Records
---
Amino acid sequence: MSAIENVSRRWFLKGLAGAGALVLGAYYAPEILWGQEPADARTDADNALFHPNVFVGVETDGTVWIVAHRSEMGTVIRTTLPLVVADELDADWKRVKIDQAIGDRRYGDQNTDGSHSVRGFFDVMRVSGATARVMLIQAAAQQWGVPVSECKTDVHVVVHSSSGRRLGYGELATAASKLPAPKKEEVQLKSKSAWRYIGKGMTSYDLADLVTGKAAYGMDAHLDGMVFASIEHPPVLGGKIKSVDNTDALKVGGVSQTIVIDPFKPPPAFQPLGGVAVLANSTWAAFQGRKKLKIEWDNGPNATYDSDQYKKELQDTARKPAKLIRGQGDVDKAFTSTAPIFEADYYVPLLAHAPMEPMVALAEFKDGKVHAWAPTQNPQAVQAIVSSELGIGKEDVICHVTLLGGGFGRKSKPDYVAEAAVLSHKVGRPVKVVWTREDDIQFDYYNAVAAMYMKAALDSNGKPVAWLQRSVFPPITSIFDVNAVYGDPPHLAQGWTDMPYDIPNLRIENGPAKAHVRIGWLRSVANIYHAFAVQTFSDELAHRAKRDPGEYLLELIGQPRTLNFTGVDYPNYGAAYDIYPWETGRLRRVTEMVIEKSGWGKRKLGKGSGLGIAAHRSFLTYVATVVEVEVNDQGDIRIPRVDCVVDAGLVVNPEVTKAQFEGAAVFGTSVARTGEITAKNGAIEQSNFDSYPVARINEAPYQTNVYLVESDAPPAGVGEPGVPPFIAAFCNAIYVATGKRIRELPLSRTNLGKES
């Protein structure tokens, strides 16, 4: 396995459980954290006089530097994790400066993906801040000649309890810098009651710059002497150039040259797609020159890919016996009994990320090293793929992380950064690669298309006594393994393997599907299609039984218990199961709360209105959502209100967390209403927001109420868990409002207007 595959597949094959352990384990190993890091890798925190670990630095003027090693794309993680450090340090937030980390293994995992930043680094950040606090206290005690036990910290100062003497952190920086770092067991963390910031939160550290246009994104990166590049990629995955005529392209003013980029060697992973790059002195010139290229393509075997035909193949496969993922009881016996049988098929198409900022990267190859500036979610993946493409060491790839204008998982795949590095290596000067919106839509790593088959045998009350579910989708692992056709355990575990209902006879299966485009993770990933199928099928069963869907859902969830996955490959999002067990009581609680908060069953709705409900656990967080819709006779949809109850364990930054779920409702609206990528002759048909629309302000929910459950459970994910139950609840509400059941997304494929 290559270096890039090692980096990229860790999440899928090993999970994230080791991320925190990596840093904590290394934290007390000076040869790892305090070794002679390259000059290129040094941060302001490293350069501070008192630098107890890689995340903290204190200057003699009292300035506290805290390193943000995660990427900022609107989640405010660049503020939230440093806030944890500042709390344990007892730092004055007004005197804190945040330093963005480059890609560097000293920080442990840097892939800002999978809704795991707080979960993976909450304890690491606490220990980092607390270690600095302990050392500052020791320095003050030595200076005063008093026992350490008589000293404590207040905001940005150490206080001698009996005399009231005080020393600021800046005054102690020199003395503290001469002390050895304490052992882990000597570092006492603050009690919950003493927290200043954790659980209370803070607005974005970057807010002023963001609202005044000073914030620097990938497109803002600049180097003297740089050229701009626009790349004509093969229209079909795996395509190659048969011939190219650049004569007219070179006639465009500002265009300096064209360069052929070699096609990738399968599997694609994060390699450049290949094609022809047009280099120029401006983006406009590069774009215009690119339009003048005359290229004849050999589109290869994927030229036969047709999404309509592929859909039929997936649905046919979903109707056939497949690979067993989890089973209990005797499903076959129950289905051959006299119990009524209900079955249904569900379908979700390919989805694109479409972040507001398309792919862009600036790279300079010089003296055997690459400096790259990029809006990336994973700078260490940048190091891995660039080093692989150019044949240099990963330590010779310095990735500077800018702010990201949206990510949703797309920018953890650094093919676009590799393109800039390859071109800079070829031309000997800095190159900024700029993708157009069309490039972004047509050459994405798409969220998998999926077909799901559901079947239930029902008792006299309409409750399932047997349940079969079968999912078929091209797996994400196909970008790392050309032979991969089955879902991998981490993605099957996203709302499929862990179906939580209390049903005696259960069978969960997965069928094969070959990928013809690059498949990648998008916000919520497989939970999107799996929750849609399970929660819509559940709602169908409730209405079929003439039962209240909320009460019926609670009955399916059953009484509080911990799911038993003995003998089942269930990675649990990389988290230890004893720390993050699957507790149906927590899912039940959020469902009960959303029924109460939304006024379920108590609100009088008008003609063409409806409420839908869904509940789902993803990324270790439990969410229940109720969506209200209005549909007029022409089929126009309005979403007056959304209610969402969230149990994400300990929440560090509550207001920011609520914003994630408000955003999830808007994101889910786009997916449900119009999200669809299709292909003919192997080429993607959509190209811009006219053919791949996202929700406009009048289409988004008008009011979204988010309720956070007070919890002593450890922190879980918040960036993604709001999307899956929203989509299902939205579609269930459409049924109530119109009588039309949604089994296929997007909604734009269904005529919701009143029949004439």
---
Amino acid sequence: MRKRIFILMGALICVQLAFAQPTLKQTINSNWEFHKGDIIGFPTSQSETARWETVSLPHSWNTLDVTQDTGYYRGIGWYKKKIYVPQTWRGKSVYLYFEGANQVTEVYVNGQIVGKHIGGYTAFSFDIGKLLKYDQTSTPNEITVKVDNSHNETIPPLNADFTFFGGIYRNVYLITANPVHFNLDNNAGVSPRIKTPMVSDTEADAAIESSITNTEGAKLKVSVTSAIEDADGNLVKEVVTNETLTANGTSAIDQSLNGITQPHLWSPDDPYLYKVVTTVKDKNGNVLDETTNPLGFRWFKFDAATGFYLNGKPIKLIGANRHQDYPGMANAVPDAIHEHDMQLLKDMGANFIRISHYPQDPAVLEACDRLGILASIEIPIVNRITQSVEFTQNCENMQREMIAQNFNHPCITIWAYMNEVLLQPRYKSNSAEQLAYFHDVATLAGKLDSLTRSEDPSRYTMISCHGDFDRYNNAGITKIPQIIGWNLYYGWYAPDFDGFGKFLDRHNRELPDKPLIVTEYGCDGDTRLHSLNPQRFDKTIEYQTIYHKHYLKAMMDRPFVAGGAMWCLVDFNSYGRIDASPHKNTKGVATDERVPKDVYYYYQANLLKKPFIKIGSRNWVIRGGTGDENAQCTQPVEVYSNLAEVSLSLNGKLLDKQQVKDKVAVFNVPFSNGVNNLKASAEENGIVFEDFTTINFKVQPVSLNSKTRPFRELNVSLGDSRFYADDKLQQIWLPEKPYSPGSWGYIDGQIFAMKDTNLQKFGTNQNILGTDYDPIYATQRVGLSDFKADVPDGKYQIKLLFAELVFNIKSQTSVFNLNAATQKDDGGGGRSFDVFINGQRVAEALGDDNYLQPLRAFSIRYTIDVTGGTGIDISFKGIKGESILNGIQVKKVF
């Protein structure tokens, strides 16, 4: 510590300047205590009844309840922690810095409030120095934090297709700075701001805009040095500025480093990063503060007719949206997962990410800078707004914070601020109130767009809209941002694949001066579900791949489409979803545990520039089907490759060679019962590229009395054309088929389909309670008379699965579910029926008066002896309404 004496206006001022080190930022994540619920009077008075548990940050109180059907907690949680502050910090600036807490946060130090932050996805900080006790040896300071994730009409998001996890779910830091330091009060933003006003292939300029705080009561002469270093640490250019800092204030210092020759440009193929080291020194050369920021030299533009250009070259932006949660962690995930997700995206061959629908952990954009992933980032105004001053102010503050905190990332090209904001408009359709509402939405959009362009005119603005062209155009929304994003789901929510291309062409025709990005497209893909005849809404991996094939081609064929961001990179938690994958959106090209699906490999074949080959269906490792006379079952397998010709071998024998068409080769594989080893290979320039996978196939003989292939078990999903793979139990469920003598199947009846919907044509999309096997219980055959299996004599276990899919209660509704219609029994009389096995009644008057409760799984298992070659005949006799059967399992004991 050195003392400086200043004579100022006749007064003697003693200024203590700490030169030991620049600003220090350290996490304080360990050993917090957490209480779920509010504590009356806390923290000014203590509670004897509060129950505290020890936790570490990041932390969320919604790690478990978001997967349950009883609702997830949205309310108040309290955190507290003791910190010890050394005497040497006295006279320094001390801040608490939160990377994120959802969504209203109040911070107290030693019982006194230091600040409140509104919004769950941006960082915030508070100066706590004046409230601290400086005694590291014996006197602790108590930090107390109140967090509330309750719904609040003044705070976006109001609702959305994701879960609003509560807690301090990102890192918390303690920051100590000398009296002279880079500004820590600018919306928790960066200082300095790094700009690149001119970049070309041959020359580049950089502008360094520093904001420096002096907390002492006297002016101070300093020098500010900004040095650009290349990736190897070599000095490229340096500028020194002498300045007199304002007393007890903040000074702006702008510097230019012009004429940098032959800059190494930043791009997805070569994400070269320089660094800018900015140092503040006093007149004696003592370092007061120092900071380092990334610098990427690049220039870009969006053109409504020809798409996106980076460094003067056209690039089609292809990438994904991404949410930030992980199973069992909620959104309190470590940096390693954020970084892994960006690597997953890069390894797919993508060059773009839409960070949806809110700013995410700093590790995400840091990884994008390093990996070369161009980014769009937005605040969470989703589905609708509130027409209030408070809502508008909160939106503006979020936009300022987002820009201030992320300004220096070269990966960012777009600041966005609304998503599908007219999806759930208030008031009666076409009413005067609704027209006024649309006007207010456009007014808010205009304010945010102007704010954004003022804060950063070097990047573009964007609004993402759902696929109602006329609504957004008539409301004036399409005129406001520089780019329009469209979230389009033709072939999923909308019925016709061809509608996608027609919509894009309409935009180009009617908005010829407005650049376009497809900011969402996708369909659900449940890794448990497969089909040889995929169809819309079946949620099979095969349909998901077909869907993306169509969309990628349509976008690549249209130069005016600047790019597309698939929905979504990984599956994520969405509590409001109640369909066959409850509380989960399964549109990811990888699972929520980050396991790639087939469509991920399809994108790799299309996007990667290095040779690539991958066998599809590699996650369908438990397969099955009905075999032929050779005990084989032939099913298609796709191989994804960017090479010209692919060979496929089965168990060491060559099956076939195929020319690759549109990055796919399809092989008909004669699977045998047991282990099937597949090898795909291709050659280019004398180098052989290979891929391997193993599939455990369970061939179900045509004849259940086959002596060469004794019967063991049969699992059938009724009313369903899909296969269901249960990796945990190593079982494969086969789709239903009609009975034929010597084999198995149903007799009579029809597939259950929801009424009053133009969407799903089989089963229900509702959450089936009491089971993890929703896809099995969500489909059924109605009105069947029998299910027969001509098995040989022996002892058998038979399990019958039921769920009542017709009900008279109002179902849970959400615009994000496939259907919100109430299913009603048109007969009005309910359902009951008897069940017989080989003539013996085993269930009497089974129906909705007893075990068959709406949307709840019910199963019964029986053990029977089959003698005299009778096989198994399960028959149904209706008493009231029609009989139903959702699934059946037959297992031979001996």
